[in-house]
Amino acid sequence: MCGGPAPRKCCTPRGTFSVPLPHFVVQTILLVVIILTNTLVIIVTILDKELHTIPNIGITSLAVADLLLAVAWFVIQLLVFTHSTTITSIDKNWRHVQDLAFVFEMSVILHILLITLDRYTAILHPLAHYKVFSSNTFSTWKIVAICVSVWGAATFLAYTRRFSREWTYCYMSVVMNMMRTILPLMVTTVLNIIIFLTIRNKTPPRVTMAAVEDPNSDQSNNNKTFVRNMKAFKTISLILISIVLSYVPLSLITMVSVCGAMPGLYERMSNYIVLLKFLNSITNPTIYMLTTRQFKQSVKTYLGQDRLTLHSADRNTNHDSREAGGRKISLTASTSC
């Protein structure tokens, strides 16, 4: 993108896009952190059955999208760093990697929208949510169907860049960026505000001694539900804020560049845009890990089991060595006799 009045022809001369060495080093370090954090979220959530809830499964699928997004963009940045031009100028076949990166970006936005819709239904329409997502009716094929739907929608919306002409026509750039990024995030934000207001209006009364003595009482269950909903709301809201801060500036910069208001803005800001995406891919799993008590307990449990296994192995080794030493002494004594 070179900027200029629409309609126009995109031009990408060599040297227009480049990745300075400091940027590339930082992006490499961030990629390692992204792989570690998102892989930890995926593995722990899969292993711990207590984390097999709709919001946690959605955040785990979001972690998969963040991981793939970071890998795809790192490949792009590596090629740009090596050749100092866009990947399509190197080889047109590399555009498939860029398409995949856009698919992963779109899936991040759709995942947070889907997670918010689940919380919205659970809090405002609990009976309908229970009928659909209760353990008796919710099965593996439904999870697969939901994930396939999200990734399918992300793929379709991402590949519309191929024929929408949004890189050359100002009005198409505005329409497509609004439809893909700004509108879904606005809907997600509004739903989260409604969720917050609903939870606040349903604040349970002060816990009584009867509720403390009887954990199965209605008041105790209401308090537990309230606390659980508030924690889920905080986690989703923090992740949403991180996504908004990372993706809305990208859409605005793209629209301004295509419409010619500030020619060359996209080229100058491209490295910082990628850094925002990388930081978001780190922030999302970090927020989940820090705000989800069950996840932290699961990590401690698995790490504790590893320590116990190591300690028991050490104890068995020491015990075997002592027994072997004892047998050696007795044999020597018998021989001397």
Which keywords apply here?
337 residues, mainly alpha, globular, disordered N terminus, disordered C terminus
Structure description:
- The protein is an all-alpha fold and 337 residues long.
- It contains eleven helices and no strands.
- α2 runs antiparallel to α10 and α7 packs antiparallel against α9.
- The N and C termini lie far apart (94 Å).
- The N terminus and C terminus are likely disordered.
Question: What is the secondary structure topology, with strand pairs?
Answer:
Elements: H1 21-47, H2 54-83, H3 87-90, H4 95-124, H5 126-133, H6 140-159, H7 170-201, H8 209-213, H9 218-258, H10 265-291, H11 293-336
- Count of individual beta strands: 0
Query: Which H/E pattern describes the elements?
Result: HHHHHHHHHHH
Radius of gyration: 27 Å
Ends distance: 94 Å
**Average pLDDT taken over every residue:** 79
Described by strand count, sense and barrel closure, the largest sheet is: none
- Low-pLDDT regions: 1-11, 207-214, 307-311, 324-337
Oligomer designation: single chain
What is the percentage of strand-forming residues?
under 5%
- Count of helical segments? 11
Shape: globular
Structural category = mainly alpha
Could you estimate the helical fraction of the residues in percent? over 70%
Short characterization:
The chain is built from eleven helices and no strands. It has 337 residues and is mainly alpha-helical. The N terminus and C terminus are likely disordered.
